[in-house]
């Protein structure tokens, strides 16, 4: 019995394009041709196509099928581990989506911030986006608590106009000092604790502050740093 490319593809539950691709990458031997140039596929070709489809249905990439055939148990174990990791990731994503839907939050809210994201200003959201790239998970949890429960001084800092005078700047820095000292004493150092390394973390935080805070807010931060150093 001999089949044409279309016929053998239909029997195997695949497509003519796929059969031709298997020829190109060496997964399927090219059959002999008839006198008029048409390929003639036999039972071995159909068996091979069915097996290729079986492995593909199991999630094995075509590029790895040869490895599976050489060392099937090892390849299957590796595939199983990969699938387990993917499933774990999908479960986490679904959990995050559930939180986002429950709080009607933006999809841009980093994990753990959906419940407070709607209360943040656009500047705070931009800062959070930058911080999430350099902060450790441990410090992000601390930061979540900080921005989730702002005190009066922190709210004033967020609303501080760019032309605030020196007296306002000095007073605000003084009132922010206790919370800053407490955060330093009780939580991890966001720079030293960064998985990206202290230098990269410090640079990203400095550039974000310079870009996103207005001149008066930067003066408050500079004064606050000076107070914390004394």
TrEMBL record:
InterPro entries: DNA-bd_dom_put_sf, MerR-type_HTH_dom, MerR_fam. It holds the Pfam family MerR_1. It comes from the Bacteria. GO terms for molecular function: DNA binding. SUPFAM superfamilies: Putative DNA-binding domain. Residues 2-71 form the HTH merR-type domain. Keywords: DNA-binding. Gene3D superfamilies: 1.10.1660.10. PANTHER family: HTH MERR-TYPE DOMAIN-CONTAINING PROTEIN (PTHR30204:SF93), REDOX-CYCLING DRUG-SENSING TRANSCRIPTIONAL ACTIVATOR SOXR (PTHR30204). This is MerR family DNA-binding transcriptional regulator.
């Amino acid at each position: 019995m001999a089949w044409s490319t279309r016929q053998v593809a239909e029997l195997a539950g695949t497509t003519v394009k796929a059969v031709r691709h298997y020829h190109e990458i060496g997964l399927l031997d090219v059959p002999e041709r008839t006198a008029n140039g048409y390929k003639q596929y036999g039972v071995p070709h159909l068996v091979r196509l069915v097996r290729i489809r079986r492995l593909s249905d199991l999630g094995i990439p075509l590029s790895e099928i040869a490895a599976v055939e050489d060392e099937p148990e090892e390849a299957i174990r590796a595939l199983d581990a990969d699938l387990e990791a993917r499933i774990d990731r999908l479960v986490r994503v679904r959990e995050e989506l559930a939180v986002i839907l429950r709080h009607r939050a933006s999809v841009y809210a980093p994990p753990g911030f959906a419940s407070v994201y709607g209360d943040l200003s656009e500047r705070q959201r931009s800062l959070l986006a930058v911080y999430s790239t350099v902060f450790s998970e441990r410090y992000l949890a601390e930061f979540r608590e900080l921005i989730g429960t702002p005190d009066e001084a922190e709210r004033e800092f967020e609303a501080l106009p760019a032309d605030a005078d020196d007296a306002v700047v000095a007073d605000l820095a003084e009132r922010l000092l206790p919370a800053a000292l407490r955060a330093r004493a009780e939580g991890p150092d966001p720079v030293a604790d960064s998985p990206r390394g202290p230098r990269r973390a410090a640079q990203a935080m400095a550039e974000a502050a310079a870009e996103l805070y207005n001149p008066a807010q930067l003066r408050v931060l500079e004064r606050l740093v000076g107070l914390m150093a004394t």
